[in-house]
Amino acid sequence: MKSYFHILFFLLIGAFSYAQSISGKILGKDSVVISYAEIIATKGNLKRTVISDENGFFRLKIPEKGYYLLEVLENGSSVFVSNLNISGDIIRNIRITENNEKTIREVIIGKKIVQQIGDKTYFNVENSVLSKGNNGLEILQKSPKLSINSEGIVLLKNKSVTILINGQKINLSGNDLNNYLSGLSSEDIKRIEIQDIGSADQDASGTGGVINIVLKNNPKGFRSINKMSYAFRKENAIQYNSGLNLNYGNEKWNLYSDVSYTENQNYGRSTGIFNYNNGQKNINNGDSKFSNNNLGLRLGSIFYPNDNNTFGIEAYYNKNNRIFEGNHNLDIYNGNDQTISSKNISSSRTPSNLWYITTNYVLKLDNLGSNLKFIGDIGRNNTEPFNDVYSKYLLNSSLNSHYLYNTNSVSNYYTGQLDWTQKIKKNWELNAGGKFGSVKRDNLLKVDYFNNDQWNEDLNQKQDFNNRENILAGYISISKIFGRHFIKTGIRIENTNIKGYNNLNNEELKQNYTKLFPSLYYKYDLKNEKSLSFSYKRSITRPSFRDLNPFVIKQNDFLYEIGNPNLQPLYVDQLELGYNIKKHSFSVYGNKTINTIQGVYFTNKDLINFFQPQNFGKYYEIGIDHSYNGNITKWLTTNISSGIYYNSFHANDGINNKGASFYNNTYLQMKLSKTFLFELASNYSHQYQYRNVTGANRYRMDISIRKTLMAGNLLVIFKVVDLFNTERDKNISHYKDFDFDFYQKWQTRGFLISVQYTLDNKNKIKAGSVKSDNDSRGRL
């Protein structure tokens, strides 16, 4: 730790100051700020340049006094020119005139779509052709460096990411997160901020990259967006979605709402084979059916009484019901002799109700962009999984069994967060804050079995477990621009306190630990939009409450899934070197993971298999990544990310697994006319080694055609999903006493048609100015 601060000290003392400067904001009509404008001061052969930040603020350091020609460029076009005598520090806002605003409007089509700002890549959605007709999940799939796998997980460099909305982490995951993102409209998204490695001002739990979805300032007037889509794969494998987005705002406040409903049905076939070292083989294969109904509601309001204060509140509700039905055969062989043959019929459903309410407040502290932010969050998730398992033995009916598993899981949480950003002259910025979060979960499992023509409770499998997790965190970070150098460094401290109690045997589980999480980012800007960067971060992944609870789910008489209350968190150290050159981005990285949490199969003396999350070993990874984003021609745009990586895993049971792999994600956009667009998206992963798993190659390609009508208000999309019907899951997991060979194929190839209509009459309401240093609508 001492060495870390010594390095930080010597890096920071390299900053130097000038004798005088000019600072202020770039403002347009109605004092609306203009972000990322270029400010140039010229005196003879002397020239100094700076870029205004997101809030329009700039500070230009001048080495000597005198008369300067001050010019402002918006995307390469001059929109302001003035002579200025600079003899000391000057604070002056630059206001663009009506004539110059006309110039801005004329060149707005040329605004940059992708930019490198500090330690982030900005994808300016509002400047791209994707600004209409996409939901939030689709926008992420088409963003630079990003992709989405078949499970709907957003990936950066082939790793899952942390999703933020306006800088605040979403307290959703899995299906709930996908449903929320699908409810967002591209018309409301200003930009996507992509951070390869997180920093100290973000939760330490993010082990991958960080994606921040920045929503637009609230529009004035009334707007509605109506969406409907239908996807057909095969008979009884369909998907239907409908949604309505309403927005109304004026000079002081804004109201917005989303409602969406989805029905999804699918079916497939799977095979799982346990190959034991002693020659025994368990083969489980059969058919599965899946259905999911989801209703999502979002309602919020933002109020900005003046330039210095912003208030916001949002409520979200989600009702979901997942049903899974399986009809599988289990055959057990000892050598060539079959010893057991059974048919297993299972039916499970998982109804859940989730809601939360979020409030936020932003106080602007000065004209430099400093502010104080508070976020409060309260929510509840009630899930009631039910599983009905019937096992019928063909060779010995006395072994038949029938079990019912009823679970009631209720989670209540609340968080409070305070963040302080202080802009300091000479391009310094200080960030500090604290956060407290508390989650309480009650988990009750009741098991019944059928015997002698009646149902009986199995008290040996009953579970009644409560746990609470409190996390108290604080951080401080500092960043500085000096010349072509940018440095951002900080440290975060988090205390985790977990208490669990088993109401059946009066056992208590306690975990209490405090850890430090440093981070460092350095970038050097070369000429012609080139840059070199270095980053480091330490992070943590805590086990989920579901994994910590000692639940039991029976798949069949020889396969159970159970929880693990003794799980410890895993820790990851990440290092990365980066090189950016206009449309290209290259990186070399290395990661080290200890206490890896992995789902593990183990077998008892009766050769009954149990699947349980465990701290299963150490994991190392090194790799090279490349991404390209930009126009190849005026009508052809592409986003390509590729990587080669090498993984090495050392399991606690002595199994070592290592190997190299390759991946490629491609998004292609072809503009056939002003209203006609063709899109292609493909994902490919070569055979890979991931921890103790060896996975087969995976490939998928989607194509779509978009047509806009009625002056752009009507959008029609036709899409072919998984064009070549190649998406499936095939892998082998390696364990001490056996290997588990798995294959699964769902109905993935299908056809989708989507229609969206936008009604917008905002011009009928008097235009006003909404000035805020924070886009806080939709903040979670």
- Radius of gyration, Cα only, in angstroms? 28 Å
Average pLDDT rating: 84
Kindly report the oligomeric state of this protein. Answer: single chain
Number of strands: 49
Q: Which segments are poorly predicted (pLDDT under 50) over 5 or more consecutive residues?
A: 1-18, 99-110, 762-780
| Proportion of helical residues | under 10%
Categorize the overall geometry.
Answer: globular
> What can be said about the biggest beta sheet?
28 strands, antiparallel
The number of helical elements comes to: 5
Structural category is: mainly beta
Percent strand equals over 45%
User: End-to-end span in angstroms?
Assistant: 34 Å
Defining traits:
780 residues; mainly beta; 28-stranded antiparallel beta sheet; 6-stranded mixed beta sheet; 5 helices
3D structure, described in words:
The chain is mainly beta. 5% of the residues lie in helices and 66% in strands. The protein has five helices and 49 strands. The protein has a 28-stranded antiparallel sheet that branches. It has a six-stranded mixed sheet with strand order 9-10-16-17-14-15, with no helix packed on it. The chain is globular, with a radius of gyration of 28 Å.
Question: What would you say about this model in short?
Answer:
By secondary structure, this protein is mainly beta.
How would you summarize the topology of this molecule?
Blueprint: H1 2-12, E1 20-27, E2 38-43, E3 46-51, E4 57-62, E5 66-74, E6 77-86, E7 90-91, E8 94-95, H2 98-107, E9 114-117, E10 120-123, H3 136-141, E11 146-148, E12 154-156, E13 159-160, E14 162-165, E15 168-169, H4 174-183, E16 189-195, E17 210-215, E18 221-234, E19 237-249, E20 253-276, E21 280-306, E22 309-334, E23 337-364, E24 371-383, E25 386-393, E26 401-424, E27 428-451, E28 454-457, E29 463-482, E30 485-502, E31 507-525, E32 530-541, H5 545-548, E33 552-556, E34 559-562, E35 570-581, E36 584-594, E37 597-603, E38 609-615, E39 617-631, E40 636-651, E41 656-673, E42 676-685, E43 688-690, E44 693-695, E45 698-709, E46 714-721, E47 729-734, E48 738-746, E49 750-760
Parallel strand pairs: 1-7, 1-8, 14-17, 34-38
Antiparallel strand pairs: 1-4, 2-3, 2-5, 5-6, 9-10, 10-16, 11-12, 12-13, 14-15, 16-17, 18-19, 18-49, 19-20, 20-21, 20-48, 21-22, 22-23, 23-24, 23-25, 24-26, 25-26, 26-27, 27-28, 27-29, 29-30, 30-31, 31-32, 32-35, 33-34, 35-36, 36-39, 37-38, 39-40, 40-41, 41-42, 42-45, 43-44, 44-47, 45-46, 46-49, ...
